[in-house]
Write a structure and sequence with these properties.
CATH architecture of the largest domain: 3-Layer(aba) Sandwich
CATH topology of the largest domain: UDP-N-acetylmuramoyl-L-alanine:D-glutamate ligase
Structural class: alpha/beta
Largest sheet: 7 strands, mixed
Shape: elongated
Radius of gyration: 27 Å
């Protein structure tokens, strides 16, 4: 019998799909937990603006809690938009009733700068922070909670320390991808890759949802925070150019990148099997002094290749090393210069030059407008698919 950890998002709906409970559910699915929802509000919004906010009636919020928790029994929950003090008070009561471990994302301001609350809820948020495992305000929300201005990264650190002393575990999201956490008294600087992009809509939701998911999967709080930072950094790096405002981050990107690497590994294994099984082709393309290699580049610019390459040995080929990702070798560095998905690096030979003269391959030194990149005494022949590459290698070998 298959099952998954069940988690709950208590949040508002983003009609644009980039933030709110939509971002939470995408993150939960990507990280392998089963997401459930208590919808606290509806927004009419897109990547540019929030035009309207509608609170869900309190009795319906409570009905959702009861329906989900009495049957599916989530262990961990996170909040998003809680638009009023009455909503927050209800949520805290239901959290205690069902003994849920809470990650509090005190959502008050959208990336567009639009307010997502219908009243001043700062005092209710402070109360909720004391009831939570951890809180994850961005710096604008931290300013409201702490009632102080945050202008520098030092301010982020000082506010995080102050909020921890008053309300418990905290992550304050700071400047240029650097956040500051205090978890069980330990201060942690969380550094993600800084990406100069406007497409960060939903990043705060994804971060708190990832913490919730990792906790449900059994990680300790500190480790969950660190892994969530790594996850959200990747979703920002591969954010989507959708809409005319702040485009959404992509919670599927980190998982899709892994899938594509595995697809690449499978493609290279099949290519190597072909090269080993067809020495009449392969031995015409390599020699016994220069190592050749194979590579596969994903849509995420990851390059898989053999650790050592392959070489002619008597009347067969000898393969050296496993297939690894993004290692520092010749084929990995030049694969990104040419428009191809899969390639083989071979020593320059008369057969290759003859194939170029006959138009079977197109040599290039820049990687532009060609499928065979010259690099000193080597040439990287590339193609869009394994079958296309094998066809090219047959044509070169028999030229």
């Amino acid at each position: 019998m298959r099952t998954r950890p069940v988690v709950l998002t208590i949040a508002g709906s983003d009609s644009g799909g980039g933030a709110g409970l939509q971002a939470d559910l995408k993150t939960f699915t990507a990280l392998g937990v089963f997401g459930t929802t208590v919808i606290t509000g509806l927004t009419a919004q897109n990547t540019k603006i929030v035009t309207k906010v509608l609170e869900v009636p309190l009795d319906f919020i409570e009905a959702q809690f009861n329906a989900v928790c009495e049957d599916l029994k989530p262990t961990h929950a996170k909040t998003g938009m809680l638009a009023s003090g009455k909503v927050i008070d209800l949520v805290l009561r239901k959290i205690k009733e069902y003994n849920l471990n809470l990650v509090l994302d005190p959502v008050m301001v959208a990336k567009s700068g639009s307010l997502l609350v219908t009243e001043d809820i700062s005092e209710h948020i402070r109360k909720a922070m004391k009831e939570s495992l951890i809180s994850t305000p961005n710096r604008y929300e931290a300013e409201i909670i702490a009632n102080t201005k945050i202008d520098t990264q030092d301010d982020v650190r000082n506010v995080a320390r102050d909020l921890y002393s008053k309300y418990g575990n905290i992550v304050v999201k700071g400047f240029n991808g650097v956040d500051y956490a205090v978890v069980d008294g330990e201060e942690i600087e969380l550094r993600g890759e800084y990406v100069n992009t406007k497409n960060t809509h939903g990043s705060g939701d994804v971060f708190s949802a990832a913490i919730t998911a990792y906790l449900a999967l059994g990680y300790k709080l500190k480790d969950a925070v660190i892994k969530a930072k790594e996850f959200v950094s990747l979703t920002i790096r591969y954010g989507l150019e959708l809409g005319k405002g702040h485009g959404p981050v992509d919670p599927f990107a980190p998982i899709e990148a892994i899938v594509e690497r595995e697809e690449g590994r499978n493609e290279l294994e099949k290519l190597l099997w072909y090269l080993e099984s067809n020495p009449d082709i392969t031995l015409r393309l390599i020699n016994d002094t220069t190592k050749a290699n194979v590579a596969y580049m994903t849509n995420y610019q990851d390059v898989l290749s053999l650790a050592g390459g392959f070489i002619k040995y008597l009347n067969k080929i000898k393969i050296d090393g496993p297939i690894l990702n993004n290692i520092n070798n010749e084929i990995s560095s030049i694969m990104k210069k040419i428009n191809g998905k899969i390639g083989v690096l071979l020593p320059v030979s008369d057969k290759i030059l003859s194939s170029a003269e006959r138009g079977k391959i197109k040599l290039t030194k820049s990687g532009i407008d060609g499928d065979a990149l010259l690099n000193y005494n080597m040439v990287l022949i590339t193609a869009k698919s394994r079958d296309e590459l094998i066809k090219k290698l047959k044509e070169v070998a028999t030229s």
